[in-house]
Design brief:
Elements: H1 10-28, H2 34-41, H3 45-73, H4 75-95, H5 99-109, H6 118-126, H7 129-157, H8 161-182, H9 196-219, H10 224-246, H11 260-274, H12 277-287, H13 308-326, H14 330-350, H15 355-381, H16 389-417, H17 427-446, H18 448-458, H19 479-482
Helix pairs in contact: 1-6, 1-7, 1-8, 2-3, 3-4, 3-5, 3-9, 3-16, 4-5, 4-6, 4-8, 6-7, 6-16, 7-13, 7-15, 9-10, 9-16, 11-15, 11-16, 11-17, 11-18, 12-15, 12-17, 13-14, 13-15, 14-15, 14-17, 15-16, 16-17
């Protein structure tokens, strides 16, 4: 294989990690403000929920198209396009006074979803292996810090929700300018064009499934609308799979997904995302439960800002774990992250009556989440060629989005099914949620066994990229700088 010097330096690394921070802050900061926005606009509960849902659905559309487009024309111009849409959406919502305008802005802000993949792909493609590994880890750590910043922003802005969107516009604009000035693009390009039928099928499937999961509680899980959306989404996913298996130039070679060394990391991403709603959202809701219910802490919305502390500390400490685990291989790093998540959920369940216990438990949970997302994406990148890194990571984000939506739906069912006489979610609903989400992390941990075997059998590198023999890597990979799970050999390109 040939080698070349990295094209991006420290300034670009700072810009890429900032994107992870800023976009999570924009996303999470909205959550505590939804009741205030709905009340001021005179929106119904269903209309208010669409403020969140509209961004989720548009994000699915952007994700299916932009990640592949990044492989074709360059990831940097696609990031600039996506960030421009986010800035415009935030500006619209800064001045919006009606629900349709707010929804329009949120649809544009949905362009941030591909940002969970494209900055990571640029780091992988343009940096030497050791620095790429560290940068990808830092991006995910900064997403955790962005969640903490979003909690603080949403808590302190309060009723001034227009100010939240104004701050978000500035944060996104800084990311846009930093990317334009500091980040060099990957020179690798995919060929064959955009598979429009495949992109269309994937988009429709994602929209159907995510809409069905997000509206299940409001419409009723047995309603014709929800059942039709979920069944239709499953059928569309099947049609998409068939299309990708037979297309001359597929959106992605779906043969990747049936290979254990790449299919299992996708499954792990799904499982850890399943528990996200059951952690931060559930524990903050538990904290705000009135003391009259016999449990909960009776905290105000401002008081829940305390949860930003462990949410920030956890990912920051995760950098130390990532460095330690990197010397022992990515599978071991992933296993450690799942153990941390399990410890966090166990702490939520056991310490549900003590505020300090809930705060402390959030630290290992958030630490484990940051490590898990970094490790699973690195596992995917270790077996795909550079020209397909964008769409490969895009599928990782698909697993993340679907897992998070399904986890939210399951926890929502618990909250609706087990209630107090006052109509609040009962303590049993929280304990069931913690047990279910922790169980998902246990399954992810168990999957480390077959994953380790598959990577040992295939001689898969555990670093940032093990490319096909016909697609030279950005720099030579070896066991000393990638933290391998096996010899750093070039793998034949997987086919559909």
């Amino acid at each position: 294989m040939t080698s070349r010097p990295p094209r991006n330096g420290r300034a670009a690394i700072m810009a890429l990690t900032y994107l992870g921070f800023a976009l999570q802050m924009v996303q999470v900061g909205l959550l505590p403000l939804l009741p205030e926005i709905g009340a001021e606009l005179g929106a119904s509960p269903a209309g208010t929920s669409w403020i969140l849902t509209s961004g989720l659905l548009s994000g699915a559309v952007f994700l299916a198209v932009l990640t592949r487009l990044g492989d074709l024309i360059g990831k940097r111009p696609v990031i600039l396009l996506a960030m421009s849409l986010v800035v415009v959406g935030c500006v619209i919502d800064t001045f919006a006074t009606t629900l349709p305008l707010v929804l329009l802005g949120r649809v544009l802000i949905g362009a941030q979803l591909p940002m969970l993949a494209l900055p990571v792909a640029i780091a992988n493609d343009t940096l030497e292996p050791k620095r790429a590994h560290g940068t990808i880890s830092s991006i995910h750590v900064c997403t955790g810090l962005g969640i903490a910043a979003g909690l603080l922003l949403g808590s302190f802005v309060g009723r001034s929700w227009h100010l939240y969107f104004a701050i978000s516009a500035v944060a996104a604009l800084i990311g846009l300018v930093a990317t334009a000035l500091l980040v060099h693009d990957s020179p690798r390009r995919a060929t064959g064009g955009l598979d429009l039928p495949g992109a269309g099928l994937l988009t429709l499937a994602l929209v159907a499934v995510l809409l069905g999961l997000s509206e299940g509680s409001a419409w009723g899980w047995g309603s014709a609308g929800v059942v039709s959306l979920l069944v239709g989404g499953a059928v569309l996913f099947g049609l998409w799979w068939l299309r990708e298996r037979t297309a001359q130039v597929p959106l992605i070679k779906v043969g990747y997904l049936v290979q254990p060394h790449i299919g299992i990391p996708y499954a792990m991403t799904f499982l850890v995302a399943f528990g996200i709603y059951g952690s931060l959202s559930a524990v903050t809701r538990l904290a705000q439960t009135p003391l009259q219910a016999g449990f909960g802490f009776g905290w105000s919305g401002h008081a829940t800002a305390w949860f930003a502390v462990p949410q920030a500390v956890g990912p920051a400490l995760g950098t130390l774990v990532l460095r330690w685990g990197r010397q022992r291989g990515l599978v071991m790093t992933a296993a450690i992250s799942f153990c941390l998540i399990i410890v966090g959920f166990a702490g939520y369940a056991v310490g549900h009556s003590t505020p300090l216990a809930e705060l402390v438990s959030l630290a290992p949970d958030s630490m484990g989440l940051a490590i898990a997302l970094a490790a699973t994406q690195l596992l995917v990148l270790s077996v795909v060629p550079a020209e397909e890194s964008g769409i490969a990571l895009g599928l990782s984000v698909v697993m993340y989005a679907v897992g998070q939506s399904l986890g939210s739906a399951v926890v929502g069912v618990y909250f609706a099914s087990f209630t107090t006489p006052a109509g609040l979610p009962a303590l049993g609903s929280y304990l069931a949620a913690f047990a279910t989400c922790g169980g998902a992390a246990v399954v992810a941990l168990l999957l480390c066994v077959p994953l380790a075997r598959s990577r040992t059998a295939g001689g898969t590198a555990g670093g940032t990229a093990a490319y096909s023999a016909s697609a030279p890597a950005p720099a030579e990979r070896d066991a000393s700088d990638t933290g391998t799970d096996g010899p750093a050999t070039a793998r034949p390109r997987a086919t559909g």
